From TrEMBL:
A Pfam family recorded for this sequence: Pyrophosphatase
Listed EC numbers: 3.6.1.1
Protein's name in the database: inorganic diphosphatase
Organism the protein comes from: Sphaeroforma arctica JP610
Species lineage: Eukaryota, Ichthyosporea, Ichthyophonida, Sphaeroforma
Reaction(s) the record says it catalyses: diphosphate + H2O = 2 phosphate + H(+)
Length: 299
C-alpha cells in the first residue's frame, strides 16, 4: 500500500499543508486511513520532521483530513532551537498512524494523562527522510517523557531497509552500535525548551529507556485508545477519513471542500535569521543549578 504526500502552499508559512493521497489518488487522512501495521509485519511511520531540520511540523489532528502543518505559537510559525551541541531534530521524527495518547486516561506507570496526540516516533536510521514520507520501521524501545504534566511516549525505531536494521533488534543494541546516542536523545528532550524560558522536561522511570516488549505494549495500548476514539468521538479532534467504516466519520462534502481549497506548492518563505543559531541557555542553567560543574567539565 503506497501513499503520496501532496504539498499545498509555501513552506514556512501558516498556510502550508501536506495532504495525502492513496494509490488510487484518493485523498486520505494520514492519522486515520494509513494502517498502523506495514505489509512486512512491522509498522508504518509518518515522517513529520526530517533529521537536522528545525521547523516544528505536526499532524493537524483538529483539521479535516489531518494534514501536516507547521506549529504556530503566538501568531508565529515555530522552529525549535539548536541546544548545543545539537542541530535541529537529531532523528527523523514523526508519528504512528492509528494510535492515540488518550487525554483522559491516567497511565498508572507514569501517573499522568496522555497528550491527546498520535504516538511519537524517533527513527534513528542513517537516511534522512523527507517531510511527509511514509515508510516501514521496526520498534526497538521507548523513552517516557513527561511534558507539561502529560505522558509523551517517544518510540525508538529504525527504518527496516537501513544498513544497521539487522543489528538493531532491541533497545540495548542501540548503545552497542551507536554509543552515546541514547544519552544524546534523552539530553535533547530534556533541554530543548529551555531556550524558550520553559523548565527542563522530566521523564518517567528515572529517565531509563524501556525495551522493545514494553514499547510494543504501548503501541498496542494506544492503538486501542484510537479504536475507542473513532467509535466515541472527541470534543476537539477531527475524525474525518475516507476509507474506514468505523463510526460516522466519512464526510464527502468536507473532503471536497479540502480538495477545492488546496493550492499548488509555492516557493519556500524566508526563515528567521536565528534558525541556525546555537543556544547555550541549557548549559547556563545547568551550571547555576550545579555549582562547580564547570570545573569538573574542564578536567
Amino acid at each position: 500500500m503506497s501513499f503520496t504526500a501532496v504539498e499545498s502552499g509555501s513552506p514556512y508559512t501558516p498556510e502550508y499543508r501536506v495532504y495525502y493521497k492513496n494509490a488510487e489518488g484518493k485523498l486520505v487522512n494520514p492519522w486515520h486511513d494509513i494502517p498502523l501495521k506495514s505489509a512486512g509485519g512491522n509498522f508504518n511511520m509518518i515522517c513529520e520532521i526530517p533529521r537536522y531540520t528545525n521547523a516544528k511540523m505536526e499532524i493537524a489532528t483538529k483539521e479535516t483530513l489531518g494534514p501536516i502543518k507547521q506549529d504556530v505559537k503566538k501568531g508565529n510559525i515555530r522552529f525549535v532551537v539548536n541546544p548545543f551541541p545539537h542541530h535541529g531534530y537529531i532523528w527523523n521524527y514523526g508519528a504512528f498512524p492509528q494510535t492515540w495518547e488518550d487525554d483522559e486516561h491516567v497511565d498508572p506507570r507514569t501517573e499522568a494523562k496522555g497528550d491527546n496526540d498520535p504516538l511519537d516516533v524517533c527513527e534513528i536510521g542513517q537516511q534522512i527522510a523527507t517531510r511527509g514520507e511514509v515508510y516501514e520501521v521496526k520498534i526497538l524501545g521507548l523513552l517516557a517523557m513527561i511534558d507539561d504534566g502529560e505522558t509523551d511516549w517517544k518510540i525508538m525505531a529504525i527504518r527496516t531497509s537501513d544498513p544497521l536494521a539487522s543489528k538493531l533488534n532491541d533497545i540495548g543494541d542501540i548503545e552497542k552500535e551507536m554509543p552515546g546516542f541514547l544519552d544524546a536523545t534523552r539530553d535533547w528532550f530534556k533541554v530543548y525548551k529551555i531556550a524558550d524560558g520553559k523548565p527542563a522536561n522530566e521523564f518517567a522511570f528515572g529517565g531509563e529507556y524501556k525495551d522493545k516488549e514494553f514499547a510494543l505494549g504501548v503501541v498496542e495500548e494506544t492503538n486501542g485508545f484510537w479504536e475507542q476514539l473513532m467509535a466515541k468521538g472527541h470534543k476537539s479532534l477531527d475524525l474525518t477519513n475516507t476509507t474506514l467504516t468505523k463510526g460516522d466519520n466519512l464526510a464527502d462534502d468536507k473532503v471536497a471542500a479540502v480538495a477545492s481549497a488546496m493550492a499548488p506548492k509555492g516557493e519556500e518563505a524566508s526563515k528567521p535569521d536565528n534558525v541556525d543559531f546555537v543556544s547555550f541557555k541549557h548549559l547556563t542553567r545547568y551550571f547555576i543549578e550545579n555549582p562547580g560543574s564547570e570545573k569538573k567539565m574542564r578536567m
